[in-house]
Amino acid sequence: MTDYPIDEIFRRAKLGELAVYPPKDEFGYNVFGADVYTKPRRFLLLDDIVLLPPQFTPERLEKGIELLREPLYTDVSTETSVGGFRVRMPVVCAAMGGTHIANLIGPKIAKGCAEMGVVYSLGENIAAIRGYDERLTNQPSFKERALAYLENLKDGYGGLVIQQSVEDENLKLWEKVYTDPDFDQYVEEGLIAFEIKAGQGAKPGLGGEVLVSREVALRIKDHYYIPEDPEKVVKDYYERHSAPGTFTEDILASQIRLIKNNFPRVKVFLKTGPYRDLDRVIEIASREGVDAITIDGKEGGTGMSPIAGMRDLGLPTVACLGAIARARDRGIRTSLIISGRLYDGSHVVKSLALGASAVAFGRPLVYACLGSIPLAPTFIKRELFRNPLLRELGKVALKWGVRGEGCTKGVVNYLKSVENEVKMLTSALGKYYMDRLSREDVGALNRDLAELFGIRYVYSAPEATGKVVQRGVELS
User: Fold this and answer.
1) Which residues sit opposite 443 in a β-bridge?
2) Apex CA 434: angle with CA 278 and CA 49, to 5°?
3) Quick one: which H or E segment has residue 367?
4) Which residues have CB under 8 Å from 65's CB, separation 6+?
5) Confidence band (pLDDT; 50, 70, 90) for 224?
């Protein structure tokens, strides 16, 4: 069973912007109003941070003077810049690799992200497993997924982020993209970034894992576990273990310089994980001029992430946000993207208030896409894929289900619901631009989080702000 609030994600994928409003009865009325306590709590420590709307809103007055009317939440602009990319909203599609479902629906997710003008990332093993331009399996190739995104971009919004495995002939994929005529116009328009993968929340220091067929395993035999004992093979599928990469401070700095020197026309991103020396990683990468750093909390990551002990490995997402807040205090202005089990508009607004430039969503976009396919929600919620027969039937159903535009519509609806929620919450804070969100807009329900971020502990009385005079009498 997924640990995401799956029903909420499916509802967003179905209703879009309307998902943030209370359900209506058969006559179209909401009889009892919103029940704010139906939303699941304690999903993350981030739920112990609350938004603190003010009574006095000078920025609302400023916006009203600009508009010559009372501002509405729809007047909030979610447009911003992430890693040099102009985006419609501060959301990134987290890198998803060549695993079966993520790759099968990858082009559909890509089209939805392009329509919504958000950044789209491609995982490091797609080209190696599925092929660069020609399909090496019965699933979309790297180029199919990349162009499904780039060819559907609108009005200059968005950007494509491309990872590459260190063991798959270093720089080879990036070199192909950089010299491929099909990508040239997008490179010239500044719509492509190359991302160094230095870590991932679910598997820090382990690299990526994925099950592949025997044919693929033999074609790219390095870093595959091919057991001699047939009983260890699951229906002729084998495990691919990609290298995590070895880093020192000098190696990281050198890799960034190498990419910037070899590929001057693209942006440079870095993806890192929930490491104890995260502050130093951010400092070095920023000093070397990366355009953005994605930080994946220990709750992040998908694929064949090991289970044993992983929940105890690395910093939680909220602690990674703490590293972002400290970076801002040190004056670091590099785009910093946070990921790790985040899924709604409140997570976006809180993260931006604490210093993040954007929030990355991974699996929620997969669920939003699958939610449009008949029986897929039931298949996921009831874990029917664990039954071998139903799993094979499910694969057939998915192949047919993704042929229409329903999957893309589910992604668009989901992102629209998040966008609508971000606008409502930002307006409630009396602000109308993403870069105006700050730590004054959030408070903590426990003292540890308040101390971590240097924000208000909501159960402590705020300091007096000055003398008050009432009818000529000064009040203390």
Assistant:
1) 50, 456
2) 60
3) helix 363-370
4) none
5) very low
Q: Is the pTM of this model over 0.85?
A: yes
State pLDDT tens for residues 301-317.
655 555 555 667 889 99
Q: Averaged over 68-90, what is the pLDDT?
A: 98
With a CB cutoff of 8 Å and minimum separation 6, the contacts of 109 are 93, 96, 120, 365, 366, 369, 407, 408, 411
The per-residue pLDDT of the chain, averaged, comes to 85
Please, what's the b/e burial string for 157-171 (b: 16 or more CB within 10 A of its CB; e: otherwise)? Answer: bbbbbbbbbbbbeeb
Residue 250: which residues within 8 A CB-CB, separation 6 or more? none
Give the C-alpha separation, 436 to 259, whole Å. Answer: 33
The residue with greater pLDDT, 7 or 234, is 7
At residue 108, the pLDDT reads 93
Compute the distance between CA of residue 272 and CA of residue 115 in angstroms, rounded to an integer: 28
Q: Predicted confidence band at 199 (pLDDT cuts at 50, 70, 90)?
A: confident
One-letter identity of residue 153: L
Half-sphere exposure of 169 (CA within 13 A, CB side): 8
Over residues 446-459, the mean pLDDT reads 96
Q: Which residues contact 97 (CB under 8 A, 6 or more apart)?
A: 103, 123, 124, 125, 126, 129, 208, 210, 303
Provide the residue type at 107 as one letter: P
Q: Which of 103, 72, 107 lies closest to 403, judged by CA?
A: 107
Q: Is 361 helix (H, G, I), strand (E, B) or coil?
A: strand
- In the chain, the domains with their CATH numbers are 80-207+242-370+405-426 (3.20.20.70)
Question: Which is nearest to 133 in space by CA: 145, 151, 121?
Answer: 145
Output the 3-class SS for 14-30.
HHHHHHHCCCCCCCCCC
Please tell me the predicted confidence (pLDDT) of residue 128. 82
Instruction: Give the number of C-alpha atoms closer than 13 A to the C-alpha of residue 256, restricted to the C-beta side.
Output: 24
Which of 382, 359, 343 shows the shortest CA–CA distance to 19? 343
Token digits for 276? 């104890």
- Can you give the C-alpha Rg of the chain in angstroms? 23
